[in-house]
Amino acid sequence: MSHHHHHHVDTSTGKIKTAFFLNFVFTIIEIIGGLLTNSMAILSDALHDLGDSLSLGLAWFLQKFSKKGTSESFSFGYRRFSLLAALINSIVLIVGSVFIITEAVPRLFNPPEPHAGGMLAVAVLGIIINGAAVFRLRGGDSMNQKVLSWHLLEDVLGWAAVLLVSILMLFFDLPVLDPLASIGITIFILYNVIKNLVQTMKLFLEAVPADVDLKRIIKEINELPGVLSSHHTHLWSLDGENHAFSTHVVVAGDAGKQDICTIKDGVKGALKSIQLEHVTIEVEYEDDPCGLDP
Known about the structure:
The protein is built from eight helices and four strands. It is an alpha+beta fold. α8 (257-270) links the parallel β3 and β4.
């Protein structure tokens, strides 16, 4: 049996930490700005951003916790706690989006008159700060980081809409634009978050990662010189970024040590394009039945 481990430098925790502080500081500024401009729209968004800050804080903690080593209870380590954060954040964002829609729809029929100048100033600041947070989290591979990116992208798009609406309302009496923009952006974000939630649930259920062609890998293994067949081949993800793989390969009864080492290297070669945390290759001789078969 062969065990292979691959480790790489993780940057997710630091990125989430930066995004958390950016979002939390801006939430405080936003609450002050909403009170000064007497804008219920900004105060409502401040409540939403406060929820984002709580989610980011939770994600930061669980992402950091997921880097702990193995233990007697968690032999693979704590990487899947990162998925737990992605799941919780997805649910929080869905609930928050539904709340925003239920608040915005009645305003279509009786839109309040917001302070356009104050909205414009806060929107510019919101785009800068939340944009910096999105930039910090860009390129994340873990589901946790991807879900958080949608959290913050929602804020950036929201403030871009507030900016556009505030500019239009400086020249035209169209307060209905505010709830219209909120509904449109929320539906767009909701669609993408639900897609991420489905992917996170698949990872929890140990589905094959969406970007990996397991059939191709099995085909390459079976075509290796000296491999008669393979079975019990499994590929699953620990956290959406780091995966685990196991397989049984059957070789001729007279295969020697060097033959087996060459086959193992060939199997690892078929896996080289995948970010693997753990690989197990069990070699069986053709006249020796597999102990896992019924």
